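As agreed, record copied across for absentees:
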Amino acid sequence: MPQRDQTPPVEAVIFDYGGVLTTPVKDSIAAWLTRDRIDPASFSRTIKAWLGRTTPDDTPMKRLEIGALTRSEFNVLLANELVKEDGGVVSPDELVTSLFADLRPEPLMFDMVRDLKDASVRVALLSNSWGTDYPRETIDELFDTIVISGEVGMRKPNPDIFLHMLDLLGLEPAQAVFIDDAEPNTEGAGRLGMITVLHRDPISTREKVSQIVSNLEP
C-alpha cells in the first residue's frame, strides 16, 4: 500500500516588503546616488561592512533594523561613511528618506496578495525596517499578520523572527511560504523548514507560488 503524503497543506504566504511589494530597492538606491551625487563606492563599501553575511550583529545597519538606533542617529553614522563624487561631505538630513524616495508599490504583487486572500490563503508581512514609513492603512487592512523588525527587536535572517511569525500564525514551518528578494533571508527561512521563493520579478514569483498553492492562478 503506498504511503500517504504527510506534507501539511500550505496555509499562509509571508511577504517581504521592500523589493517584493515595491519596485526594486536597488533602483531607488541608484536614483538616490545619482540625484545626490554620492560616490557609489563609498555606499557599497559601507553596505558590505554593515550588512554582509559575516558581519557582527552590532553594526549600525543591523541595530537600526531592530530599533536599537533611531533613523536620525543612523543618518548621522551613514553620512559619516559616505562621500560626494567631488569629495565633499554628505549631509545626514533625511538621508534614509532620500534613499527610499523612488520606491513605489508594485501593483502586480499587491494583486497577488489579494488573489491569495480570495483563495482563502492567509497572507502575512515580514519586513526588516530601516526606520522607514509603511503605508499602514493599506497593509493593516490587507494582511492578516504583520511583523516589522524594528517593532519586535528581531531581524531577518535570524531564526527568532521567523519563529515569532509562525507562532503568531499558529503554523508549522512547512505550512508557510516565505517570499523575499534577499537570498540570506530565504536561506534562513529554509533552514527552519519553511517553503521559500527568492523574488526576482512579479511574474516569475507568481508562477512559483502558483505551483505551490494550487488554488492560485499563475
Summary: The longest helix spans residues 40-51. Residues 179 and 197 are 5 Å apart (CA to CA). The chain has two domains: 12-23+104-212, 25-99.
